[in-house]
Write a structure and sequence with these properties.
The protein is mainly alpha-helical. The chain has 9 helices and 2 strands, in the order H-H-H-H-H-H-H-H-H-E-E. A two-stranded antiparallel sheet has the order 1-2. The radius of gyration is 41 Å and the shape is elongated.
């Protein structure tokens, strides 16, 4: 009869060995249990702090100058502009003036109806418009003490009116409003020019109120940016630099009633002017690419801290 190793192995006394093997194995396992366990792996390093993304300094709407004077509001919330407080006759004349500005400055192909409709308006209603003009002139003579003084006062006023409506940053909305009015005038020529002027004048003013409101929002947001980031990141931003120059060096601040060509971040050059035969005022022609804004957008870059250590 054959026996396996466990059965045939015997000690010196002739006793079988399996019991001793089990005892040795148990001793080894007990020694392993008493050994020091391996240390746990170190924790992962902490995540790096999030990198702060510095926003660009806000840009003014319509490519406008970084620093610009906005017309204020009266106690009733109305803008104090060259159009404020106008009489019925002045409304008609300001409307005619605004339409004239649009005919000269809204020159893209899609705006051709503006010139067509304006030309028809002043030719078809020349007599009615002359009566309005004569009444306005009479008031200026009366208020300014004579014909010559009245002419000069009205010419100065009308120059402001024309400059106001030639404001380049509001050009896109202004041309669209003038196009809408012109298309309606072509489709249904007005029989009452005064009523038509008064009914539509607010449409030509609306783009400017929109621009003023948007610009005031830009002023608030840019002031917040300047307060938070200006000290370190301002020098890399054209708008911040322009604001500091205006504050510290007395740089002239453009507005809608002096030089419309200067109201852009990158001032343009007026192409010329057309003299209004009725008032003698110059109607500015300021070429502006309607959908092109020439404002540099620069990544904010931190200024190097000044080294005040002794050399």
């Amino acid at each position: 009869m054959k026996n396996d190793a466990a059965q045939t192995y015997q000690d010196a006394d002739g006793k079988s060995a399996p019991v001793r093997i089990v005892a040795v194995a148990l001793a080894v396992s007990l020694l392993g249990a008493c050994a020091t366990p391996a240390p746990p792996p170190p924790p992962p390093p902490p995540a790096p702090p999030p990198v702060e993304r510095i926003p660009y300094r806000p840009l003014p709407p319509g490519g406008a100058s970084y620093v610009m004077q906005m017309p204020g509001k009266d106690a009733n919330g109305q803008r104090i502009t060259v159009n404020a407080g106008r009489s019925h006759d002045e409304t008609v004349w300001h409307f005619r003036s605004a339409w004239n500005v649009a005919a000269l400055n809204c020159t893209a192909a899609q705006y051709q109806p503006i010139l067509t409709a304006y030309s028809s308006y002043i030719s078809d209603h020349s007599s009615a418009l002359k009566r309005v003009n004569d009444r306005v002139e009479a008031r200026y003579r009366s208020e300014n003490g004579g014909r010559r003084a009245g002419i000069l006062a009205r010419e100065e006023h009308m120059t402001s009116v024309y400059n106001y409506f030639a404001l380049p940053p509001a050009r896109a909305g202004f041309c669209r409003a003038a196009l809408d009015i012109s298309n309606r005038a072509i489709a249904a020529p007005p029989s009452e020019p005064e009523a038509f002027s008064r009914a539509n004048f607010a449409l030509l003013e609306a783009p400017f109120e929109t621009f003023f409101t948007d610009y005031e929002r830009y002023q608030r947001l840019s002031a917040e940016w300047d307060a938070q980031y200006g000290e370190r990141y301002g020098p890399s931003q054209p708008g911040w630099v322009a604001v500091q120059a205006a504050r510290n060096n007395g740089v002239p601040v453009p507005n809608a009633e002096n030089d419309p060509a200067a109201t852009l971040a990158k001032p343009t050059t007026a192409a010329g002017a057309v003299t209004d035969q009725e008032t003698g005022a110059d109607v500015p022609v300021v070429p502006v690419q309607e959908n092109f804004v020439s404002q540099p957008v620069t990544q904010p870059v931190a200024s190097e801290p000044e080294d005040n250590s002794p050399s």
